Prior knowledge:
This protein is an alpha+beta fold and 401 residues long. Helix 1 packs antiparallel against helix 6 (158-197). The chain is 50% helix and 19% strand.
Amino acid sequence: xxxxxxxxxxxxxxxxxxxxxxxxxTAGSQAxxxxxxxVEHATFETLHTASLAAPPxxxxxxxxxxxxxxxxxxxxxxxxxxxLSDQKQxxxxxxxxxxxxxxxxxxLAGPLETGRGEAFRLTCDTPDCPVRWAVVAPLTVDDRVHxxxxxxxxxxxxxxxxxxxxxxxxxxxQLELADLDQSRTRLIEAEIKALxxxxxxxxxxxxxxxxxxxxxxxxxxxxxxxxxxADFTRYSFxxxxxxxxxxxxxxxxxxxxxxxxxxxxDRLSVTLQIAPEVLPVALPFLCLQPLVENAVKHGxxxxxxxxxxxxxxxxxxxxxxxxxxxxxxxxxxxLLRRILAGEVSPSGGIGLSNVDDRLRQVxxxxxxxxxxTALGAGMKxxxxxPKYQPGVHSAGRLTGG
Length: 401
């Protein structure tokens, strides 16, 4: 990632240089309001324009994103016309000379294949058309050409060739960021699917068996448990975003525990201590439920006596601190480290490593799970959740009452 950030800086610095040139060209002897020299003013204008062009490009290269960013990119270059293309067609033409679209697309075959820029004269039978010359700068991501930026002007200009190349590099960086965002989204979706697949068939079978056992003896209890089961499965298989709220996750955990308690009776006791102010905190979907399932499994596994699970969620300033603790069989710390490192698969498919990985991906490496355990000593899992994180927004409550 450090290399990528270095590349980002390399792409932006020449863009600022282009901004200096544009500022000198456009500002000239104009009187500038406010503080700063003409060069500083031009630099700020360039940065502002670039910041407006970036958001659409972060969604990839499409007709819509090209249309939303083309005007800003043309302003950066100060050209009469600018077009963006993908590998097959001109996505947008901004400015004069739109009748050159077909000719430009025909001339893009070489640059799109080789990834090398090119400049050429345009043929035109329209006497008053100001577009006579074009500069092609390919848009590349990971050595793959995604499309091209074409800047059109009345005459040849070595400065425009350099400026178009640097702006194209900046656009390529935005497209690379879009690719990273899409890869991250696909990875999170794959991991959520993996967690859904890990919902134990034994849990489903046992839950339905318990519900069936109450149908004749206590129909009302069977109905309540069936609703709990329906709400839990609906939450687990929902398709509405990557994030949820702590309140929704705890609500799903409550459904899960109701089904577990129906099976194990008074062998399982649960204590919850939840600070109301942390309930709206957003967190990755299906993040805490697997930890509670892990506590149930290791709390009751190999034991004939009672198991106690405590779930706390505390306000810790800029963070919410969630702790899930059981007094069960515990685990060998060496085995736990190997599970979290992905060296071995956990028995029963409980997704500790999955949850740890997702927390680190969303919040950074310092936000992985903290797990304290030993054989016969139970397990304590601590998760820190920032209250505010860019890009982390819950999809809203979808569970039943």
